[in-house]
Amino acid sequence: MPKQLYIKTYGCQMNVYDSARMAELLAPLGYAPAATPEGADMVILNTCHIREKAAEKVYSELGRLRVLKEEAKATGRQMLVTVAGCVAQAEGQEMLRRAPVVDVLVGPQAYHRLPEMIARATREAGRQLDTDFPPESKFDHLPAARRPGGPAAFLAIQEGCDKFCSFCVVPYTRGAESSRPVAAVLAEARQLAAAGVVELTLLGQNVNAFHGAGPDGAPWGLGRLLRALAAIPGLVRLRYTTSHPRDVDEDLIAAHRDLPAVMPFLHLPVQSGSDRVLEAMNRRHAAADYDRIVERLRQARPDLALSSDFIVGFPGESDADFQATLDLVERTGFAQAYSFKYSARPGTPASALPRQVPEEVKDARLAALQALLQRQQLAFNRASLGRRMAVLFDRRGKHAGQLLGRSPWMQSVHATLPERLFGRLVEVEITGAHAASLAARPLLVAEEALPPTGVVRESPRPQA
Ligand code: 5AD
Ligand code: SF4
């Protein structure tokens, strides 16, 4: 009987990637993925510390796990509880003290050491803690063979951040900015493509700061890396996230212009439209810089759709500052976006700033911003009505026969399709547009004419 491993992932896509790598790492130890924590031999919470709410959720989950762990013990089984990710990194010893249910605590840069830590914890050699930033890279110690769960996969190319935005914990929990060598990235990408992956999302906390060493030791930028990835047979869709406006360079813009594989969608957080607030956030760009970058990107790729992150209620944010954010949203036009109330994070410079914004003001600003962003998202989706596009269907819908996928512009698309199209790129026509999703019908040629792999009738790009 394989041992049951349940992993719960919070937060960003980097955590989703790390969870997949942890599962791959533990498979040789006899752990098979489980869908629920009930009956699991090992539970991993891969945690997020970015906002207060995210961190609190971990402690409530640990409360529930305590009950399961005691039930397991009563029936003579052992259930190990591991906390990984940024809460583990930030809380360290404090978490071991506060949550006795935790057996193993491991930071984002040390999880390649999990097998050893688990072995020790199983032998009841005591609780294990490792929140080092080890000199060796975890990537050199993870299994080379990836087991992608479908046609779309993540690939971490860069980690950490040196930007030190004044609100953000990432530079502390994920550590200094570092890029993987180009050869390692290309090898992992080829391996994923050989395993059937057609859509690759490159990940990094500051992904476009990528400067991995090329074969001759000289650093490559993200634009150059995208060119090399686009040349790998099978990889027909490339995405990358999350980017910083400061690191959008000419070569990256040119990659959007030249490479059809680079999808016409970019998540480019701006956080605020007010220069005063951007300065206090230590963002190192002004609102006009963002406008300029967006303009250049759209010149390169006219159908580019944008997404962003916003924080409302940053300390000292006035009504006029907030209005500047609404203005930026109005003039930019986003296909989707994430917006958050500012949440003071321990140890960050902004948490010590005077003039914290009252909760009810934050609530009102968030509601106003989200209403505007939702209007823009609906308008963007409505503009897709009647268009043809290729959709990668990689999830099952709620209804029988319904498959879910993503458009090139990251819209969620559902359609009733034959099961054999699961995991394929299919050309569809958009027949319905909602706030957060599109409905589509497949444009299929005679069934016999369908190729066994690849795109099922790829259409030309719609005009913007
Ligand atoms: N409070 C609110 N939102 C935050 N983010 C990061 N730190 C904070 C914070 N302290 C948001 C930013 C970032 C996204 C991942 O989370 O918008 O881009
Ligand atoms: Fe955090 Fe700023 Fe780095 Fe993004 S760029 S991870 S917001 S410090």
Compute the CA-based radius of gyration.
23 Å
> Which band does the percent of strand residues land in?
15-25%
Structural class: alpha/beta
Q: So what's the CATH class of the largest domain?
A: Alpha Beta
How many strands, what sense, and barrel or not for the largest sheet?
A: 6 strands, parallel
Short note summarizing the structure:
With 464 residues, this protein is α/β, with parallel strands linked by helices. Helix content is 33%, strand content 21%.
Q: Explain this structure to me?
A:
The chain has 3 domains: 3-130, Methylthiotransferase, N-terminal domain (Rossmann fold, 3-Layer(aba) Sandwich); 138-382, pyruvate-formate lyase- activating enzyme; 388-456, Nucleic acid-binding proteins (OB fold (Dihydrolipoamide Acetyltransferase, E2P)). 33% of the residues lie in helices and 21% in strands. It contains 13 helices and 20 strands. The strands form 5 sheets. Strands 2-1-3-4-5-6 form a 6-stranded parallel β-sheet, with helices on both faces. The chain has a 5-stranded mixed beta barrel with strand order 15-16-17-19-18. Helix 8 links the parallel strand 10 and strand 11. Residues 50-51, 167-168, 269, 271, 309, 311, 340, 342-343, 345 line the site of 5'-deoxyadenosine.
